[in-house]
Amino acid sequence: MDFSPAGSGRMLVALGVIGVLAILAWQTMEPGQYRTLTLILLGFFAFRVTLLRLRSR
């Protein structure tokens, strides 16, 4: 796995961490406004990671 700044290893680790955080937020937070906001923010971060990976190619 390539962990250089433009490598795919970093992207996979970042998306994996974001995915784990999303699962934990889903399981531990009560349904409502805060959980929705948390999931939207995590989705935004995942989108940013993906966009930066595509832009670095």
Describe this structure in words.
The chain has 57 residues and is mainly alpha-helical. It has one domain (8-56). The chain is built from two helices and no strands. It has helices spanning 8-28, 33-56. Helix 1 (8-28) packs antiparallel against helix 2. It starts with 7 loop residues before the first helix and ends with a helix.
How many strand segments?
Answer: 0
Query: On the 0-100 scale, what is the average pLDDT?
Result: 90
Gyration radius, in Å = 13 Å
Strand content: under 5%
Count of individual domains: 1
Helical stretch tally: 2
Question: Could you say which structural class the secondary elements and strand pairing correspond to?
Answer: mainly alpha
Low-confidence stretches: none
How far is the first residue's CA from the last residue's CA? 17 Å
